[in-house]
Write a sequence for this structure.
């Protein structure tokens, strides 16, 4: 996404919610704010609404007022209190919306996501890294750093968690690998406290689903500093959990490579066939022209 589109969406949202119940309650949050501050390309837009069930209610309000993209109905995940939407003015950009929360959703027990509603500070403490806890108020454009660590950690190139590492790491099976991915991606330092806690809580990595594990490893292996990433995975003791997936990923890569080769061969064959047809057509034209010329000479 271009920075122009990101700024345009922010301004459009500010205009849309002016003098409504949403004014002052809608925030850009997480990676998009981090990337904007760091001057990097923005990939996704996440919005947090500090009102009960705010994510879904806000998206439903946008749809009711005909502000969503034509032919692109918003996707609601009522069980989790989240929603995906595209604005009418920016139909190519998908926006994720959620309420601010005070604790991790327990997937087996989410009859009412509203019970997880929390303040901006509580929401920030639930996030994976301090650099992803920055909020920008859409209405005022004011930047909030609820933990008081996000901006300084970006400035000092430090990877650490907003809550105590033991709490943050146990919150999500992927947090340890995500810490490693961000450290390698930006070539930053993992705080000493976090690194020790990663070693102590490494068993949580073994509880990750195959889908999430493969996606995270693919992201890590695509980095320029993947050797450092593998070194850190080994250092914290997570290699025994991720190693079984390497063979699977290699198999997938081989299949992808073979598929690309087949497509390339098919494309080449089609191009050769097309060229042959063109050549035959040119030869026929040349022959007709020659026959016509010979007739004229005979006459």
């Amino acid at each position: 996404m271009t920075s122009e589109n990101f700024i345009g969406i922010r301004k459009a949202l500010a205009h849309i919610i002016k003098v409504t119940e949403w004014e002052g309650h809608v925030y850009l949050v997480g990676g998009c704010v981090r990337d904007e501050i760091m001057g990097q390309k923005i990939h996704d837009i996440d919005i947090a609404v500090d009102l009960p069930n705010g994510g879904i209610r806000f998206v439903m309000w946008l749809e009711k007022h005909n502000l969503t993209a034509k032919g692109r109905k918003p996707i609601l995940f009522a069980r989790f209190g989240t929603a995906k939407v595209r604005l009418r003015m920016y139909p190519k950009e998908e926006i994720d919306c959620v309420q601010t929360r005070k604790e991790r959703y327990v997937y087996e027990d989410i009859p009412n996501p509203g019970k997880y509603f929390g303040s901006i500070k509580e929401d920030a403490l639930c996030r994976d890294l301090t650099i992803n806890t920055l909020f920008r108020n859409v209405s005022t454009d004011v930047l909030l750093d609820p933990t008081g660590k996000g901006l300084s950690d970006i400035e000092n190139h430090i990877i650490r968690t907003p809550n105590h590492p033991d709490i943050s790491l146990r919150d999500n099976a992927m947090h340890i690998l995500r810490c490693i991915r961000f450290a390698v991606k930006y070539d930053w330092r993992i705080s000493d406290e976090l690194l020790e806690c990663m070693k102590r809580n490494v068993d949580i990595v073994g509880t990750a689903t195959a889908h999430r594990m493969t996606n995270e490893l693919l992201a890590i292996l695509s980095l320029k500093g993947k050797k450092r990433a593998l070194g850190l995975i080994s250092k914290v003791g997570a290699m025994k959990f991720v190693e079984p997936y390497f063979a699977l990923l290699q198999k997938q890569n081989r299949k992808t490579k073979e598929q690309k080769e087949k497509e390339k061969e098919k494309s080449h064959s089609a191009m050769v066939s097309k060229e042959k047809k063109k050549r035959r057509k040119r030869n026929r034209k040349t022959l007709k022209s020659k026959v016509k010329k010979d007739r004229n000479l005979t006459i």
